[in-house]
User: Fold this.
Amino acid sequence: MIPPEDYRFLSEFVYRETGLSLGGGKEYLLETRLGSVAERFGHGNLAGLVQVLRRNGDRTLARAVAEAMTTQETLFFRDNSPFKTLKEKLLAPLLEARRRTGQQLRVWSAASSTGQEAYSVAMTLCTFAPPVAPAESEIVATDYSPGALERARAGLYTQFEVQRGLPVQMLVRFFRQSPAGFQIADEIRQRVRFAEQNLLEPFTALGLFDLLFCRNVLIYFDTQTKKGVLNRLADALVPEGYMLLGSAETPYGLTDRLVRAPGLEGGVYVLREYADRIAKAAAATAAAGARGIANRAAVVGAPARP
Assistant:
C-alpha cells in the first residue's frame, strides 16, 4: 500500500502535469500504472520512483509518469452521433463560408490519443458529397503523449481496434491488411497533422478552428481546470465555429461563453454571441439544399420530396 504522504505527492504531481484529479482512494490506480514505470527507469518500486521525483527534475521520468496516468481510451467514430451531425448538418454551411473566402476548413482533434477520432473526421470529409478536397481542409490532432502520437502517425491498428466503431465499408475502402495489422490509407493519413500539446498549457500558436473536437477529456478534470480549458478552447473557435464535447460533458456552470448549437442535438456548442448568426446561416444552407433537390427532381420529371 502506498504511504499517505507518497499518495498525496503523486496525486499533486499528476494534477500539475496533466490536470487529472485523482481524489482519494485511487492507490490501486497509481500502483497499477506506475509500477511498470518504476521498473523501466530502474527505481525498483513506487517508493523508489517517488524518491527520485521528489529530489530531481528529470523531465523524461516526469513525462513517463504523466503519460502512464493519462487515459488513452478511444475508438473510430466514437458514439457515432457527432460524426453523423458533422456530415449532415455542419459541413455544408462551414464549407460554403470557407469557399467564399478561399480559406481552408480547419479542424482540431484535441487529446486525440492514437488518432482514431482525427482519422474518423478525415474519412467523413472523404465520403461527404461532394468529397472535401485535401487542399480545402486542415485537420490538426494533438495529444500530451508522445507514444500515442507516434502510433497515430503510423496509422497502424490491430484487428480489435478496427472492429470498434469502424463501419465495414470504411474498413474495406480506407485500410489495407498486412501481417502487422490494418494500415490506414495514405489519402486519409496525409490529411491529419499530429502535434504534441498539453491542454493545460497555451495553445494559441495552433490558430483558430471551424470545428473543435474535445470529447471525453473534461470528465477527468476538476471544476477549476475545466473552466480554464473551456474558456481557452472558446478562444480557439472562429465566430461561426462549432465545439463538440462528449455526451457526459457540458460547459454549463463552467463558462457562459458557450451555448448549445441551435437546432442540433448532442454535445455541439457555439459561441454565445454568434448563435443567432450561425442559426441563420444553417437555415439558409438547408434552404439552398432543398431548392437544389427540387430543381434536380424537376429536371428528371420526378416529384420533389417534401
